[in-house]
Design brief:
The protein is mostly beta strands. The chain contains 1 helix and 16 strands.
């Protein structure tokens, strides 16, 4: 009886362990579109011809590189979507890793953006700088334009910040900067409560 109880408990725990580990990649809603990742391990990538599903070539991608990665169901689970390995109509660049194996990469927190940082899906709650094209095509930020390491833009931004007026909001004041001749210049400061 003890042996049967032990076996039953082991089977239940094993089932719970397997069920718990499958939620890592599949259940995450952020895999609905490609995500930027940093590879933490060297991986093999197969170039597959889409019309025949035939493997054309195999590449080795080194750890420490950054790629846009998609997670799919089916035979190809992980597909690279950027740079040299840009999956498209003709070819798919499939990473040789199991569907739920996420040990070979980490989600990228920020992407470089004109000397600043841009948020990814993982860090959207850290955004502190916004672009307003509706009102006056200006940038509103919690930081000066010279505080490069602190500024974090929204992830759908496609403009060059140096081409727009920068409004730094601090306390009850807004200080305006413009980029001219290779550097940011102070324009004016005003109290916006009046």
């Amino acid at each position: 009886m003890k042996k049967q109880t032990f076996i039953l408990t082991a089977v239940v725990l094993a089932a719970l362990g397997v069920a718990g580990s499958t939620t890592t990649a599949h259940a995450a809603s952020h895999w609905q579109k490609a995500q930027w990742v940093d590879l933490t391990k060297t991986v093999k990538v197969d170039k597959i011809q889409n019309s025949t599903s035939k493997k054309i070539k195999t590449y080795t991608v080194k750890s420490g590189t950054r790629y846009s990665l998609s997670h799919w169901t089916g035979k190809t689970r992980w597909a690279l979507q950027s740079g040299r390995f840009n999956s498209g109509k003709k070819y798919t660049y499939s990473v040789r890793k199991g569907g739920n194996n996420t040990s070979w990469f980490k989600m990228t927190k920020y992407l470089p953006f004109h000397g600043y940082r841009i948020a990814t899906e993982v860090t959207m709650d850290k955004v502190n700088t916004f672009y307003s094209k509706d009102q006056d095509s200006s940038i509103l930020s919690d930081f000066k334009p010279t505080q490069y390491k602190k500024v974090i833009f929204d992830n759908d931004l496609k403009i060059n910040p140096k081409h727009h007026e920068w409004q730094w909001q601090h306390g009850d004041y807004i200080t305006i900067y413009k980029y001219k001749k290779g550097s940011w210049h102070y324009i004016s400061s005003r109290n916006y409560n009046f």
